Amino acid sequence: MSQAANELSRAPTPDPAEDDAYFPSPYSLSQYTSSKTDFDGVQHRGAYTQGKWKVLMIATEERYVLLENGKMFSTGNHPVEMLLPLHHVMEAGFDVDIATLEGYPAKLELWAMPREDEAVMGTYEVLRAKLKQPEKLSEVVAKELGEDSDYIAVFIPGGHGAVVGLPASEAVSRTLEWALCPTTSSSSPCATARRRCSLLRWAGTSRCSRGIRSASSPTHSTRGRTSRSAIFPAACPGWWPIC
User: How far is 104 from 102, CA to CA, in rounded Å?
Assistant: First the structure.
């Protein structure tokens, strides 16, 4: 650790937009954020060219997490955990739709945005309009999920904001049931077990700079049907320190 970093304040930075709310401290930002990622290129650029299949991303619309000490952590989705996987998805040839629980704008931890990273910032600019005006997830469930859906995967990015509202959402549960148990009804034991497992897999995820884990492979079967997958951030140890 450099002497300059060690001299930075470890006190949380107040967020003036909310009572008793805070951003990470200058010291934490110096240790756990970067102006660029270690992204080294796309391996499957242009792999899909048919234009039908899309990925549905469920983003958080919640800015604050209430902590045990009564303070509020100013958070959202982590920009790298969201935008770098989507960069790979889009470069491979898949379109991306964005939904939040009520259709309110997606929230990002902009204090963690790597503003000198061309891949992340380019993806952010492409998706900026959809992030500001996402779809309402319950309406997506009602109108766009089914055997003939154009969605091939569901992606839920990390960031502390994802733990607020999403784990208890019926619309999220129904989306995951559809993605993970496509041939069974939503009330089946398989769907219930998959839902519980899936929610636990991503709800506790914190930070990671790269990598996604797929619950099932989105490959084409010999009968022309497509298996869907639910994509979650790769497991990462620890939480963002707020001090």
Answer: 6
Q: How confident is the model at residue 148 (pLDDT cuts 50, 70, 90)?
A: confident
φ/ψ of residue 103, rounded to 5: 85, 10
**pLDDT at position 184 over 50:** no
- Report yes or no: 157 and 82 within 8 Å, Cβ to Cβ: yes
Residue 29 and residue 207: Cα distance in Å, rounded? 13
pTM (2 d.p.)? 0.77
* b/e 176-213 (16+ beta carbons within 10 angstroms → b): bbbbbbbeeeeeeeebeebbeebbebbbebbbbeeebe
Least Cα distance to 74 among 44, 110, 113 occurs for 110
Mean pLDDT rounded to a whole number for the chain: 79
What are the pLDDT digits (tens) for 33-45?
999 999 999 988 8
Query: Containing H/E element for 56?
Result: strand 54-58
Q: Give the integer Cα–Cα distance in Å for 42 and 86.
A: 11
Alpha carbon distance 76, 94 (integer Å): 25
Q: What does the alpha-carbon distance between residue 186 and residue 173 come to, in Å, rounded to a whole number? A: 9
Identity of residue 129: A
Write down all domains in the chain, each with its CATH number in brackets: 3-233 (3.40.50.880)
